Each structure stands twice: as structure tokens, then as C-alpha cells.
Amino acid sequence: MNPEKLKKLQAQVRIGGKGTPRRKKKVVHATAATDDKKLQSCLKKLSVNTIPGIEEVNMIKDDGTVIHFNNPKAQASLSANTFAITGHGENKQITEMLPGILSQLGPEGLTQLKRLASTVAGSAVGKATLEEDDEVPDLVENFDEASKEEVAPKKELNENDKGAGDKNDTIVIEEKKEAPLATPEA
Fold first, then answer.
1. According to the model, what pLDDT value does residue 93 have?
2. Rounded CA separation 83/57 (Å)
3. Helical H runs in 14-80?
4. Measuring CA to CA, which residue among 173, 169, 150, 153 is closest to residue 161?
5. For 111, which of 44, 46, 83, 171 is 20 to 30 Å away at the CA?
6. Tens digits of residue pLDDT in 31-53
7. How far is CA 160 from CA 167, 176, 186, in A?
8. Where is pLDDT greater, at 126 or 84?
9. 94: number of Cβ within 10 Å
10. Which helix (H) or strand (E) holds 99?
11. Which residue has the higher pLDDT, 118 or 183?
12. CATH for 40-116, among 3.40.50.12160, 2.60.120.330, 2.20.70.30, 2.60.40.10?
């Protein structure tokens, strides 16, 4: 390999002077603790005040899920119109929190709740129809054969009635006899 090309490649890789080791890039490990410290310093610049006495915070999303914080640390800066809620958040369905969350729902939340109730009612009706279908007994016999057996006695009855002259109803049953397609020649 050409020594001049090799020196150019080494010069591109080198970060410091002649005595430094060659490194392609510096790796910076960012932890959650450093992110939290940066966030707290930014909040301190906004002069936020801690709001005491908040037991829970619920953030209701459009898709019907709720981000629930139990005993969070709530901070507010009214001048910057900024609120910060820190703590352990859990994603839950709105149906899991129903009795206690009703007072917190706004008009959009109530429409979501009505829509959810209609889907639940629709599924309950669907389950009821499935249960009704379970009560229907299974078919065990062939009804075609039973109907053929009923037609034969009716035919005999009608022939007997015609002899008496009481009824004018007739049942016509046509029997087709198939003619042979080809006659065998001997």
C-alpha cells in the first residue's frame, strides 16, 4: 500500500495531536439521572412552584386510554404557562378506572364513554343472541326422507276421498322414467 495514502487516512481518524490514540468518535453515555437533572434545572429557571396535596393525575387520550399517576410531584409556573408532573405513570383503559374517573371527564370524555357503552351493549346483545342459538337443538334426522314418507300417505288418502266424492283437492306426483340412451344391438 502507498505510504502517503496511509498517512492521509491516519490523519483523518486522529482526534488530538501526534501522541493521542486513534478514535473514530467519542461515546457519551447519557443516563436517566442526568436527563432528570437537566429537566430540574430547566424547571428551576422557569421558577416553578410545587403544588401540594395532589393525590392522583389522570391524562385521558383520544383512543380511550388513560395515563394514571398515583401520588405525583406536581409543579407549576403560571407565568410560563407550564405544568410538570413527575412520578410513575401507568397506561390503563378508561373502563378500569370508571367509578372514580366520572367526575374528571369533560364533554369529550363523556362522548367517548357513551361510545364505549354502546359497543359494550352491542357486544352484550351479540352474546345474548349466541346464547339463544345454543338453545336450538341440533338436527339429527334427514327431513327430505320424512317429507317423502308424508307425501305417500296423503296420496293414498286422496284416492280414498275421491271415491267418496267429498273433496276436490288433488295431488299430482309425476314420476319420470328415463328412456335408455342407446339400445344394445345383438
1. 84
2. 12
3. 32-45
4. 169
5. 83
6. 777 888 888 899 889 989 999 99
7. 10, 24, 47
8. 84
9. 19
10. helix 98-101
11. 118
12. 2.20.70.30
